[in-house]
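Example 348, ligand 2NL.
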Amino acid sequence: MKSQVEEVRSSFEAEAAEVNSSASLQELKVRFLGKKGTLTALLKSLGSLSPEERPLAGEALNALRDELEQKIEQKKLKLIQAEDAAAEAGDRVDVTMPSRGRPAGAFHPVAQTMHEIVNIMQGLGYSVVQGPEVEEDYYNFECLNMPSWHPARDMQDTFYFPDEGGERKTLLRTHTSPTQIRAMLQYGAPLRIVCPGKVYRRDNDPTHSPMFNQLEGLLIEKEVSFSVLKGSLRELMNGFFGRELKNRFRASYFPFTEPSMELDIECVECGGENSGCRICKGTGWLEVCGMGMVHPSVVRAGGINPDEYNGFAFGMGLDRMAMLKYGINDLRYLFNGNVSYFLSGRDA
Ligand code: 2NL
């Protein structure tokens, strides 16, 4: 029995030396002191010993059990301390580490689009002019042939700043045209300008935001023809989309131009090949730009003699242009500030 006690002790010592976690310590405890443990088996065998041998062997085995239990408890404490210290060290900030860095920034797709269009127009001799977003009714509507009773105002309801008498003379501009009127008054003719910027309308649905971005162009010279307008806009669209696109000009109406037209380009998504195309609704065409020859009374409102000068103007939505060029399928991605959509697969 004595040699068995020594055997158990030495095998415990050997195995305990290998233990390096509280989990493996628990396994060790079960192997020696558990119901089917090595030491437990010896204790059970006491009954088969002779009455003379039993007390001594019992004493030795009980002493060994106490010893093992004690060693296990000590080891457990040490392991828990070491594990806590390791966990804490993992949380500690190593101030000598280099920073993780940030992904490179980029222009907002609408800003990018605005710069691309402005660059093309600058190549055609146009300058950029900016103006106030809080405008006067006169510049936004009145001088553009839209008196207060005009039905075209219904489509351009906006946000007003009533004065003390309750009159609504100050508003958020519904288009960038008032900036073009201001430019005509300031610089006179001849004039070639583009006016990009934020505009506002009382609209809010999946394809209309209360704030959106527009770019208008204005050219005032002597004896300008509609064909100059058509050529300039073809140049703009082909330059912007980077390839020759089919186009068509349809008759339209705006209060401030006469005659007025709209430009359609071939669908940049399907090229007219997909009758179920979500982008062109199966028509093969995309409406991208409204335009016309500036109405003589608008030229006059700009302080320019319409008998001496004429010209053309056009306007387009920059948000829509950005969505078409960059394949953005929901207007809300442009406004919610979540860049993850632009960093990963967009169709996901
Ligand atoms: C559209 C259509 C257009 C204009 C804007 C304009 C400006 C002046 C005089 C005459 Cl100062 N016209 N701008 C003309 C035709 C169309 O925009 O669909 N915009 C998103």
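Summary: The pocket of 2NL is lined by residues 177, 180-181, 214, 216, 218, 254, 256-257, 290-292, 294, 298, 313-317 (CB under 6 Å).
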